[in-house]
Amino acid sequence: MKFTKMHGCGNDYVYVNCFQETVEHPEEVSRRISDRHFGIGADGLILIKPSEKADFEMDMYNADGSSGAMCGNGIRCVAKYVYDYGLTDQTSISVDTKSGVKYLDLMVKDGRVEQVRVNMGAPELTASRIPVLSEAEQVIGRPVEIGGEEYRYTAVSMGNPHAVVFVEETDCLELEKIGPLFEHYSGFPDRINTEFVKVLDDRTVQMRVWERGSGETLACGTGACAVAVAAVLNGVVKGNQVTVKLLGGTLQVEWDREKNLVFMTGPAAVVFDGEINL
């Protein structure tokens, strides 16, 4: 199988061009190639496929083999791949995902994509649709006791479910302990991605993320979008544009509240091309 290893802000996936390759049993393939000791090493597998609904389809699998609905960093890399590897010459494209068709604008320099702006769609705030179990229609700053500690979280879906928790510090968090407790908490029926966020100033936040199915990752695009929405809803930033600092880099997120659309802009990079015998 020919593949390309790519990353967006350190959120790394193995990409396969399914215009040329056929991948059988992608769940097992994702588990195998994601292993950082015995495989290629990645947060998961992304298959780039033909689509009847859009220019391309992104079929995503997490490191544990579970299917993913959407990945903000991953879709930026899809855009870079299809342009840099000659599958399109357009700088505005559409990509079908399990959370709907997304529209992307490619920023090209010297014939290569450097940054991508993604229309991530509308944030979902209705608890039952995220889903989280709640008597209230929306969950904004709701207290929850997990692992013997009380946290306040805001629930947002950007195609996949997120619990955003504002904390005083992120550097000293025992995320490998706290993250799984949130992921498998009974109030999150489909498991959840959890962002722990420190407010740096009225336009900038810093986050660490525990992704369901993958553990802590260096970045999460949908998570950064959920964080920006939660920051606005909780009044911890001014305006609707938020700089989100992640372990792997920085993303710019804008929530256009008039249109109720979230836009994310960030980098995409190729690490290497290779082949693996499956």
Description:
The chain has 278 residues and is of the alpha+beta class. The chain folds into 2 domains: 2-116 and 267-275, Diaminopimelate Epimerase, Chain A, domain 1 (Roll); 127-259, Diaminopimelate Epimerase, Chain A, domain 1, CATH 3.10.310.10. Helices cover 16% and strands 44% of the residues. The protein has an 18-stranded mixed β-sheet that branches. It is globular and about 50 Å long.
Sequence-ordered SSE layout with sheet pairings:
Blueprint: E1 2-8, E2 11-17, H1 26-34, E3 44-49, E4 56-62, E5 67-68, H2 72-84, E6 92-97, E7 100-109, E8 112-121, E9 142-146, E10 149-157, E11 161-166, H3 175-183, E12 193-201, E13 204-211, E14 215-217, H4 221-233, E15 241-246, E16 249-256, E17 261-267, E18 269-275
Subcellular location: Cytoplasm
Enzyme class: isomerase
Active site: 71, 71 (proton donor), 220 (proton acceptor)
Record keyword descriptors for this entry:
single chain, 278 residues, alpha+beta, Diaminopimelate Epimerase, Chain A, domain 1, 18-stranded mixed beta sheet, 18 strands, 44% strand, amino-acid biosynthesis, cytoplasm
**How many angstroms does the end-to-end distance come to?**
7 Å
Shape: globular
Determine the CATH topology of the largest domain. Diaminopimelate Epimerase, Chain A, domain 1
* Helix-strand category: alpha+beta
Query: How many structural domains does the protein architecture include?
Result: 2
Main sheet properties = 18 strands, mixed
